[in-house]
């Protein structure tokens, strides 16, 4: 499946609005300081899927489509997302993201910290323009939760005994929560009922969880040329994700368990050692059971969605679930 | 002058409300994550002057005092201030602030980045609770300006030819702008007229500028035991501030000018070299002319304030100007 082609087809009905969101983002991110603009243009130039904007707009289409306000919300959440990525790359000491150099790699940690902060400030302005207290609180709660999720991830790095429950908690707060906020925000702005708002929140949360699980699977199954980073990258960084958790479930306290434990405790790794574990996780139950979990989350997303009457827009949100499951990068 | 005793006397009328602000800050900064709470409690434990809260409350007293909303605004701006300090300490690679270890020194840069972000998120929630679009925008604009000011400071570090104008621009955006936002926000919430709001904004801006100039003077004139850092610390860090700018005005292109130029280009410094420049700035025109500038800013703050009818609360704001000028740490 060609990822870009699929999304283009899926998003054909909102293409013009997606472009307006991009343009507005650039306008609202502008500063009087050249260095801030350069860093910002670089951050914006990185290819993204615009999934969050699509979620916001499509959720907004299920009721009264109010593009003017959805535009502000979309830019706000894309900007929030970018701010968290920029700060994440400092926290993770990453030098590339999807094959491109990160802001910290090009401009240094200091500018990266301040660019993220600047985006948070600008986001608050966008949110204020929407003039809906429910959106104000959605924004604040979401950013706070994402911070907590990032810290939880950091604190649990290198922990071979990480439970599935903690993995899920981390995934919901760090990744899925913002996607849930997008669909919930779209629902709020479009005048959905409280019940519909909660359903679209659940849809976004389960879709986002499936998205992250697939991401974590791809980290084991794909190579550098496809996803812009070498397979086993999470493992190299000491990140214990769902495929590894499942693989370890069946591992006796010797053999692979010991091997992984040693790997997680080391700063540098031999490629052969990483490859051996990657293969074990990929061939055994690790990837298989994770894929089942992703499908279970997808089913829950669909279940929430099917409370809405069938419509072409609901179909797109439905196909988006398949896209998340099937994507290869 | 004993700084703490003076402030206690000045703030006697709002002491109970200041305490409530402290308490509410702690409540609102709480997270479910232990590490975040520990870092937060450490950051909160550092002694501060609570100047920003006092400004907010006292400005609010000049019209209808609405403590419930002023409380939210005070906590929000103290939290914003703390978030910027925490991120600043990473940017400046500082290990102590007022004699205490910084969050980055104790918990590492990563936790410090995320604690700052978490505070921004929480602040957005507090601002939302005030339910006044003018405050929403004041908050967003202020944080964006503070970020720009911090970047401007960073970009101009080590530049011996820094102009007075750029120094003032940096000082207004990095420091004074938040103090101006406090007094302006207090005015907005208390139902001040647009003209009064602008006057209190000007008051805060000039007070904040004087405050920073005095800070920069104290960096040359005070020793470690009084302000918790060695004299000439700014110089060591390559920061060109007003006293140095004035001192350099009269310096020929040899002698001290060359000495400073060499110092600014070096990473490590000999104590004697720093001491020599510190003494030259302190004894010569550097400190003298800066002090005149601080007084000029103070006069402008007073001019704005005197548009309000005399009252005990105006008197406190008036005495606050003297406090800022006379403080020794």
Automatic annotation (TrEMBL), chains A, B:
Q: Which GO terms describe its molecular function?
A: heptaprenyl diphosphate synthase activity; metal ion binding
Q: Name one Pfam family in it.
A: polyprenyl_synt
Query: Does the keyword Magnesium feature in the UniProt annotation?
Result: yes
Task: List the Gene3D superfamilies.
Answer: Farnesyl Diphosphate Synthase (1.10.600.10)
UniProt EC number: 2.5.1.30
- Reported cofactor(s): Mg(2+)
Print the keywords alphabetically.
Magnesium, Metal-binding, Transferase
Biological process terms from the Gene Ontology for this record are:
isoprenoid biosynthetic process
Family label: Belongs to the FPP/GGPP synthase family.
Name of the protein in question: Trans-hexaprenyltranstransferase
Q: Which organism is it from?
A: Ktedonobacter racemifer DSM 44963
**Organism lineage:** Bacteria, Bacillati, Chloroflexota, Ktedonobacteria, Ktedonobacterales
């Amino acid at each position: 499946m060609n990822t870009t082609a699929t999304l283009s087809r899926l998003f054909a009905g909102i293409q013009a609005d997606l472009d307006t969101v991009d343009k507005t983002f650039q306008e609202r991110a502008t500063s009087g300081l050249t260095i801030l603009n350069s860093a910002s243009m670089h951050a914006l130039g990185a290819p993204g899927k615009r999934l969050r904007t699509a979620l916001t707009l499509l959720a907004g289409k299920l009721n009264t489509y109010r593009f003017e306000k959805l535009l502000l919300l979309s830019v706000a959440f894309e900007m929030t997302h970018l701010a968290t990525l920029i700060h994440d790359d400092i926290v993770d000491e990453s030098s590339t993201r999807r094959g491109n150099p990160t802001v910290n790699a090009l401009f240094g940690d200091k500018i990266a910290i301040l660019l993220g902060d600047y985006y948070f400030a600008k986001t608050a302005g966008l949110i204020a323009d929407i003039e809906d207290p429910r959106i104000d609180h959605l924004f604040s709660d979401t950013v706070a939760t994402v911070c907590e999720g990032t810290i939880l991830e950091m604190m649990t790095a290198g922990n071979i005994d990480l439970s599935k429950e903690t993995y899920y908690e981390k995934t919901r707060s760090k990744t899925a929560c913002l996607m849930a906020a997008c669909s919930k925000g779209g629902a709020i702005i479009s005048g959905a009922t409280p019940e519909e708002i909660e359903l679209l929140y659940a849809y976004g949360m389960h879709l986002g969880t499936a998205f992250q699980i697939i991401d974590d699977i791809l980290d084991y199954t794909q190579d550098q040329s496809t996803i812009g980073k070498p397979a086993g990258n999470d493992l190299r960084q000491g990140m214990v994700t769902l495929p590894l958790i499942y693989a370890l479930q069946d591992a006796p306290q010797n053999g692979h368990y010991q091997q992984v434990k040693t790997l997680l405790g080391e700063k540098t790794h031999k490629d052969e050692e990483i490859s051996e574990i990657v293969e074990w996780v990929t061939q055994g139950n690790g990837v298989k059971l994770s894929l089942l979990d992703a499908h279970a989350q997808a089913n829950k997303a669909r279940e929430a969605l099917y409370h809405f009457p069938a419509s072409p827009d609901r179909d797109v949100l439905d196909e988006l679930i398949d896209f998340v499951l099937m994507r290869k990068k």
